[in-house]
Amino acid sequence: MFTSTNPSDTNEVIATVPEATAAEILTVLRTAKNAQKGWAKLPAPTRGRIIANVGRLVESNKEALAKLITKEMGKVYSEALGEVQEVVDTCDFFLGEGRRLYGQTVPSEMQNKNLFTFRMPIGNVFIITAGNFPTAVPSWYIVPALLSGNSVVWKPSEFTPAVANALTAIFHAGGVPKDILMTVIADGGQTFAALESGLKEGVINKVGFTGSTEVGRKIGAKAGEYIQSACLELGGKNPMVVMPDANIDLALDGALFAGFGTAGQRCTSLGTLWIHESIYDSVLAKFVALVENAAVGDPFKDVLFGPMISQKYLDNHLTHLKMVQSHHKVLGSTSTGRITAANPRKGFVGDPDKGVFAHPVIVAGITKNDELYSTETFGPLVTVGKFSTLDEAIDLANGHGYGLSSAIYTNDPQNVWRFREGISAGMVSINNSTSGAEAHLPFGGNGLSGNGSRQSGIWVLDQFTRWQSMNWDWSNKLQKAQMDLIEIKHDPNFVLKI
């Protein structure tokens, strides 16, 4: 059994659920695989209507689902409401795609012959997601996968089983058959063992994974052994560049939200704030003041961020603090590490000893040679460095190999276009934070942040469908492509005379 507790009050049990073994997950995968063909026979517009039902049910249960997110993983309630809205938006977008799973009619090079293309479902999809966005990110996989005619086995984070079971119940209430969307709670070891068995047996036709680069590399390699390309949405070390002509107050608002919202536990969280050397000291001082005065604590109150998702995530944050070097300046708080009565934070909201809360930390003076420069910290820790030219800023923003999200604050169009062209990230924000996504825009990264696959919008359909081509020859004779061409003549000796 796995016990899920409230990270704001670890004595409060949110749910106790059975953990599945690899053998049990494999049984679930077989069940979903066997049911998939029946689901695919439903007309796509009908599947779209079911997705519409799910969206309306999520919308009508928005507050209850958001409260459960806040209680189970500690996200500030206003952010949790926004996350649930993302599920609604995703359903609203894809209900229409049920009527737009278009193929094409393609002209043939031969007479009396027609060419067509069709989107076909892949089969059974194994989805593995993290606990930082327990509803929004899963919906990016589940909704388009179901809409396209696939069955889904979802393995959510073991730290958010109550949210996972609630979201699954909503899908089922909306009309998704229980053997078409099946949810299992398991640890990483059992999950990976089931993944390997399912790929070998052929009951997994696509793998979708959101999580760390380290684990994503293993999943991608295992899928590749079975001639599959996994959909990988991995970590980030997301840069934010502040130019001298920027609206500084706006940039600082963006840095505060991107760096410390959800306690820095987003794949799109701000990694390093790169400030032009001419404004470095003044901007850093203002950023430090904002962080020092930000409210931290009870996520149901008006705070910047609440607890870490669990003790595991706090331990990970403490490990990253050990990477601070002597040439760095640690700012933003009078202390570091866990917030407790013995290690207090000014203005803390609530009782720190009940939960797993961490001090926000700014590490200034970061350089390209530092371990923190190239490490995704995934906690309330933002590094800060300086640059002299935009070319240098782009080099610093790309040098660690991650390529998920990025941002630049400037009012000069030349800076905008040079940054967009030079940055390796899959997502670019201009005068906005590194965090934030809309349901109809592609989401995903490159390099260490992913294998180029994209979620959301029409682009994710390429992850959950395969193109099928058909040629229909009604000439009543064998026509051979590239051989039986219609002869076209021209005059090779023509010369234009003026």
**Order of strands in the sheet with the most strands?**
12-13-14-11-10-16-17
How far the N terminus sits from the C terminus, by CA atoms, comes to 89 Å
What is the CATH homologous superfamily assignment of the largest domain?
Aldehyde Dehydrogenase, Chain A, domain 1
Task: Please write the CATH class name of the largest domain.
Answer: Alpha Beta
- Shape call: globular
Note poorly predicted spans: none
Output the number of helix runs. Answer: 14
Report the sheet-strand fraction: 15-25%
Tally of distinct domains:
2
Topology, number of strands: 19
CATH topology of the largest domain: Aldehyde Dehydrogenase, Chain A, domain 1
Mean pLDDT value: 96
Helix content: 25-40%
Radius of gyration over alpha carbons? 25 Å
Category from helices, strands and their pairing: alpha/beta
Can you put this structure into words, describing what you see?
The mean pLDDT is 96. The strands form five sheets. The protein has a seven-stranded mixed β-sheet with strand order 12-13-14-11-10-16-17, sandwiched between helices. It has a five-stranded parallel β-sheet with strand order 7-6-5-8-9, with helices on both faces. It has a three-stranded antiparallel β-sheet with strand order 3-4-19. α1 packs across α7, α3 runs antiparallel to α6 and α9 crosses α10. It has 498 residues and is of the alpha/beta class. The chain has two domains: 254 residues, Aldehyde Dehydrogenase, Chain A, domain 1, CATH 3.40.605; 201 residues, Aldehyde Dehydrogenase, Chain A, domain 2. The termini are far apart. It contains 14 helices and 19 strands.
